[in-house]
């Protein structure tokens, strides 16, 4: 029996949020389905490619078989034409050997290059008395003189009157010879004489198959050939299919002049009295075009895009959930920090107000000091509330500024004077160089909050006994655009640990507090975010630099001067305020 969900597990689920867990599980399932879909699509594509490759090889085998059939028909036609003179009945015209040799030789010389064959020979054998006469190799070679009569008798016994002239192969002299037999018959269709010729099978097949390749009408299915099938070659189809004809012993009878290296090849074997193997290889450009026509599928892109899109959406969902959890954690930290920030001044106000109500002060001086503490903490509490309100309005794009011509020196001096007691309580000094009559068109309330946040950060993250410097001055910002306009520059410098260069962009984000990582006191995490938002809305710039001699940090705010401001040479009035509040 299971113990079910433990309270600790339930608390963890609630802490993480049921919604996040459900969404995470859904995204994980979507990712698995997407991966499975992508894998299935890939496997289907691979199988499709294999099918296309098999179809190309089948096309090549089709071409080989078609060529073989045409070659067989051409060789049969050659035998029939060469032996046509023997088809005349003997009763009407007794055919002599010389007449047969002249007629058959003319055909063979023209169609099979027979004149250069060293085994060239013609013969006649009387089937009634067995008398044998021959010319050429059929007469000069003793083996042929002995073998041809036996072949003639054997083939004549099975020859059909209307069929093609039979033939036989004879191995002699390291070659395979072909012996063709043509039967002459009398008026009663009785065989009376056998005429024929002998020659090299290799030479005769090579010449005959070459002619077939040149005259070949169609070796490929018509659907595979278009009007653009020439590929820069001549118009004969042997430019599309490279052919090779091999004998039963592997000897090469014929090959087309142009051969290709391609995986789109196949062969077909013809079996009979002799075995011939025909190999066909498709032109690489033709194979590529056929492959492209079969593999081009608009759905292929969709099949690949959908899993990738699902994976992208799942990744975006994971990033969003992670960001949401980070924001939730940041908000919890923010609430805890603000609660702590509010508790401290409230505790001070409550303690001193109750003490005053109980009239426990010893004298008027002590009473005035306690009232000062209450006022200071109330201002601090007001600044914190104002900071939160400004941040909330900026985040929701509801912040509306009310700019007016403002003396920046006086405004900064007012803020510094308010923070002098706070600095003194922490054993710190504030030195301000804030001359008056430096005017800018700003919202005083918003800019006061900028100065408050910068001073608060400098005091909060700096060491005891540090000196915080506040400067206000006119400058000419000489940037890449050679902008010579007048700007107001507010700089707050502390002597704390500084801000690493790699973190100077991140600190402007909401809820980011480097003090947590550095071990210093924390804050609400929105102070610098409010500063950047307010400065940007005023058309200014804010940046962080190293302090003097690389010690501490300096935050610099640049604001455009008001058009009505006095010129830069006008004598400013101002004062230097220290931690004691006395002019220096």
TrEMBL record:
InterPro entries: HATPase_C_sf, HATPase_dom, His_kinase_dom, HisK_dim/P_dom, HisK_dim/P_sf, Sig_transdc_His_kin-like_C. One of its GO terms (molecular function) is phosphorelay sensor kinase activity. Residues 337-563 form the Histidine kinase domain. It catalyses: ATP + protein L-histidine = ADP + protein N-phospho-L-histidine. It comes from the Bacteria. Keywords: ATP-binding, Kinase, Nucleotide-binding, Phosphoprotein, Plasmid, Transferase, Two-component regulatory system. Pfam families: HATPase_c (PF02518), HisKA (PF00512). Residues 564-584 are annotated as: Disordered. Its EC number is 2.7.13.3. This is histidine kinase. The lineage of its organism: Bacteria, Pseudomonadati, Gemmatimonadota, Gemmatimonadia, Gemmatimonadales.
